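Hi V.,

You were right to ask for the full record rather than a summary. Here it is.
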Amino acid sequence: MATDTYVGSVDQGTTGTRFMVFDHGGNVVASAYEKHEQIYPEPGWVEHDAMEVWENTKSVMNTALDKGGLDPEQLEAIGVTNQRETTLLWDAETGAPIANAIVWQDRRTTDRIETLEDEGKADMVQQKTGLEPDAYFSATKAEWLLDNTDPIKLQRARPQDVRERAEAGDLMFGTMDTWVIYNLTGNHITDVSNASRTMLFNIHDMDWDQELLDEFNVPAETLPEVRPSSDDETYGSTDAGGFLGAEVPVAGALGDQQAALFGQTCFDSGDAKNTYGTGSFMLMNTGNEAVMSDHGLLTTVGFQRSGEPVQYALEGAIFITGAAIEWLEDMTLIDDAMESESVARSVDSTDGVYLVPAFTGLGAPHWDQRARGTIVGMTRGTRPAHVVRATLEAIAYQTKDVAEAMVEDADIDLADLRVDGGAVKNNFLCQLQADIVDTNIVRPVVDETTALGSAYAAGLAVGYWETVDELRKNWQVDREFEPNEDADYSKEFERWHDAVDRSMGWAQDDDE
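Predicted structure:
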C-alpha cells in the first residue's frame, strides 16, 4: 500500500462540521472544524441552515488539506458521518432547501407522537423500525415540513403546494448524510444505518415501509436510495471541476453513533461502546439478529458492508450529556468544559444535589418527551462545585441506566465499555463512569472514532484496507479505568431515580 495516500471523512455534527484525513494506521494527518449556527425559532424548536452546513463542509475540506499540505488527488476515498435524524427537504431542480433542517433535538412534533400513541399505533411502529416512537426521529419532522412550509415560489409559474411538489418527485428528503452525499456527488443516497433512524424504514425487510409512509404522509417519491454503509460500488465521486478539484469516490456513510461503533472496531456480537457528544449513545453489536428491547432501548441497524448481512445493534440514546457541560458554561458555573474536572474534584460529593439534564426530554430507557431539566436536593450550603459534580454524576447515572437495560435485553455481560467523544478527555468522568457502571472503561488513543469509523467504511470499500483485522490492529488503548473496589454508588443511584421521577411529565402544551 502506498504511504502517500489517505482517506478523508466528513463528520457533520450537531454543533459543527469537521473534515479529518487518516493514514493507513488510522492516525489523523489533517483536520479542520467549523461551527454552524443553532437556530431556536420557538421554545423546544431547533433548526440548522443546511446551506450554511454545506458551505462549512466545503471550507473544512479545503482547509484541512491545505493545513496538511495534501493534494486532493491523494485521497483514495471519502466517508461521511452525520448527526442522525436531523431532517430536511430540498428542491430537486435547484438543490436549494425549502426550509431550515429540523434538528434531532427538536420537540415540535411531540403532540403528533402522542396522537400516534393514543391511536394504538406505537407497537406497530416499534415492531417495524425497532424505534420507540418519539419526536426525535425523522418521520414526524418530514411530515411537519410538508405540512407547514410555505408554498414554493417558482420562477415561471404560480406558487406550488409543497406536497404537490413532493408527490411529483420534485422534492428530495434526506438526513444530513444524504444532503452531504448529494452535494458531493449529485446522487440521492443514504446508508442503511441512517435509514434505520427515520422511523420510515423496516429494519427486518431492509426497505422503506409503505404503511409507515402512509401513516406519516411522506411520499415515496422524495426518498433516497438505500445503500450499504461500506459500498464497493460507491455512492459516486466528487467533480474534478468542482470545489475540491479532484475526482474522489464517496464510498462509505454511517450515522455518527454507528460510525463510532465501527471506528471502535466493535465488529463482533457483544462489543459495546459509548460516545459522549452533545448526547451520549451507547451501542452494543448484536450480530445478525435484531434483538427487540423489553427495557426501553432502541433496536437499530449497526452497519452493512457490500455483499454481507446487516449487523444490528441495541442502542441507548441519552439526549443530553456533553450539552449539560455546555450548559454549565452558559450558566457561568465553569469557564470551559475542561474546568469541570477540577471543579468537580474540589468537593467530596454533591452534598445531596442531583441534576437531571432532561433539557429536551428523556431518552432511553425512560422515554418521556415532557420531562425537563431538574435540580433537586439544594440547600443554602449548595455551591457551584456541587452542581458541577452532580452534572458529571448524572452523565454516569444515565449510562448505568442504559447499561443495565442492555445487559437484560441482550443477555450478554458487559466485560468492558469502549468510550469516545469530547467528554472522555475528562479523567474524573471516566473513573466515575467505571465506579458507577462497575465495569472497565477503555479509552482509545484516537478518540475521534466517529470520523474514523466512516473513513474505515469508505477505505474498506475501495480496498485501502483489505480486512477488518487490519482495523483491529490499528485500535490502541490510551488508558483503562477500573472500578474502585471501595466505590459504592448504590444508594445514590436509587436517589437518582427519585430525581428522574420528579423531572418527568413537567412540560405542558402551554409551556412550549
